[in-house]
Amino acid sequence: MNRKVAYILFSAIFSLVISPNLAFGDALDELLPRPREVIRAPHALVKKRISPGAYILRVRGGKPSAEGDEEGLRYAKATFAQLKKLSEAEGKPVPDCIIQDWPEFKYRGLMLDCGRNYQSVESIKDVIRALAAYKYNIFHWHLTDNYGWRLESKIHPELQKRESFSRNIGKFYTQKEFKEVVEFARARGVTVIPELDMPGHTLAFRKATAIGNLADEKAKIILGELIDELCSLAPADIMPIIHLGTDEARERGEKVPQSHLDYWAAKVTGNGRKLMGWSPGLKLPGQSIKHLWMGANDPRGDATAYIDSQNSYYINHVDPEELLSVAAYQQPCRWGTKEEKLGAIIGVWHDDAILDSEDVIRMNAVYPAIALLSDNFWLGREKDEPTLYARLPAPNDPRFALAQDLERRIIAHRDKLFASFRHPFPYIAQTHMRWRMTDDKGNLIANDIAQATIYPRHFWFPKAAYINSNDGVVILETWIDCNQDIDCGAWIGMCGFSRSDGRSRDAPTPKLGEWNKHGAKIEINSHPIDPPKWVHPATAGNPKEIPLVDEDYWYREPSKIHLKKGKNHIKLTLPKKGGWKWIGSFMPILGTSDHPKEVKGLKYASSEN
How confident is the model at residue 462 (pLDDT cuts 50, 70, 90)? Predict the structure, then answer.
């Protein structure tokens, strides 16, 4: 073959390589996480990448073949399974292709807090199935908290006494169930990291053992025995990491000498495990993995390798529509060398009481988060965008294309992979929306805002904001052009409570007849829309123990609205004085909140003309 012919062939093959943002309109263009390299020529030569988890998947005539290490072959299988399901949903064959892919980070996971609120084993298995399908490899299982010690102990059965629990009384995981979950996860390439949180978050332990102060030598010994017992439930090669918490040791009974921490740390490492703890947190000698959880700065304190759960990855603080900006623009592991950056874990901290174990999944949009953040954790991001937390760039900004691409993919997954799923999948397309924000004097603050939930100012880190003050009035307006009269539902929200004690921080919840305590209102074509008849109106004091029911828009029945043929003016008036979230949400929807769909044929504009 002469050089000219070789060049032409190479150019033809290269032109078939899909960049992650280039749309071709088939299942290859709907994969999540987005593969790094896709070639639509199944016989092309590919230079093999040698790195942990890397794989090459070839599909020819609907038949897959793969190369890679053991981990990579699992990811190739997951990619083909997703490709097949997406194709079948469209009634199309699996396209011929070559996919070469590899993870940016070693660890990618989700933390489920079962200490505060017990989750059924079957729900946990469903979460693990989804994690494996989206190429996560960690399930962090928070098993103990003030409300209950939820892992059975045969050497200290007093931990399961009913009087030691203050929620989900008597609900815990037997050692048999624990082993079952660990093995279930292992079979799917997911490692369980169990957490026994100490010395903070130990009220249930102190009640069960009648030890009022963990500085007591007896408490040191018992907790050490419990660490040994935990390690006995699975070998080190299957359960290589033990998490000991160490955050928020604030109460008098939780203050311990350093010798206690040294003893507990030695128990973990003496059992051949890596030691993991929260940062900020207490000092654990021999700790090999720090788990970042709070703040906008680097809290590592040294060069210890770390996993990132900071800020936007605590989805109990996040609105479902906010997930898009998190997935598109927040960089996991912003500090240190490549060797120190181990990866990221989604945090599902549902502090408030629940009526049903499904509520933790529903109220924290767990499955949309798993799907969207898989891209963030698998590929990483070239640049951290702190000004785009809870905020999408303007539609004319080149960065906006990534949000559009991810949203197109997540809608395909919602409709094709989760349509008959027993768990909720609350997400609605928003990048086609256009809003303007003004103050109450008519001064323009922002225009062409392309999202469904808008934060004039956000309370969390990083504090992306349209305005600097935490007081005042903003007006959100959009004009929706309809091709016919439409009666439909709408997601409308002006509270935005976190599921982590948000009502205590921004109490009281609205009174009957109010959208929020600040006097917010919404009008469609100058007609006010009534707020829901709140199940728990004006909840103040300590609302954590009053289960959330309808406080946020995506887990209550949609409001009923009418949109006329032609232009419709939507106006949200949002006064604010102190408190937490300053928020306005509006989305016309069809179906239920658990399984919503977009209303088709709506055109948005940020001005009347």
Answer: low
Return the exposure string of 155-187: e unless at least 16 CB atoms fall within 10 Å of the residue's CB, then b.
ebeebbeeebbbbbeebbbeeeebeebbebbbe
* Mean pLDDT, the chain, whole residue set: 92
SS (H, E, C) 215-282: CCHHHHHHHHHHHHHHHCCCCCCCCCEEEEECCCCCCHHHCCCHHHHHHHHHHHHHCCCEEEEEECCC
pLDDT band at 24 (very low <50, low <70, confident <90, very high): low
Q: What is the per-residue pLDDT for 465? A: 79
- Pairing between strand 289-292 and 274-279? parallel
So what's the pLDDT on residue 602?
97
Of 340, 379, 382, give the one whose Cα is nearest residue 103.
379
Helix (H, G, I), strand (E, B) or coil at 366: helix
Looking at the chain, the whole-number percentage of residues with pLDDT higher than 70 is 94
The two tokens of residue 357 are 């174990």
Q: Rounded mean pLDDT of 535-559?
A: 90
Burial class from Cβ neighbours inside 10 Å (0-12, 13-18, 19+) for residue 338 reads exposed
Structure tokens at 353: 């009481």
CATH assignment of 107-388, among 3.30.70.920, 3.20.20.70, 3.20.20.80, 3.30.70.560: 3.20.20.80
| 75's tokens | 């990811």
* Its pTM surpasses 0.85: yes
Instruction: Please list the residues that pair with 308 across neighbouring strands.
Output: 292, 344
Classified by CATH at the fold level, domain 413-605 comes out as Jelly Rolls (2.60.120)
Between CA 388 and CA 409 the distance in angstroms is 20
Please name the amino acid found at residue 388.
Answer: L
Q: In this structure, are residues 194 and 143 in contact, taking their beta carbons and an 8 Å threshold? A: yes
Confidence of residue 198 (pLDDT cuts 50, 70, 90): very high
Q: How far apart are CA 358 and CA 53, in angstroms?
A: 33
Query: How confident is the model over 219-255, as pLDDT tens digits?
Result: 999 999 999 999 999 999 999 999 999 999 888 899 9
- In degrees and rounded to multiples of 5, residue 311 shows phi and psi of 55, -110
pLDDT band per the 50, 70, 90 thresholds, residue 16: very low
Extents of the domains making up the chain: 3-101, 107-388, 413-605
How many whole angstroms separate alpha carbon 282 and alpha carbon 197? 12
Contacts within 8 Å (CB) and 24+ apart, 122-126: 123/357, 123/358, 123/361, 123/423, 124/181, 125/181, 125/184, 126/422, 126/423
Residue 245 pairs in a beta bridge with 198
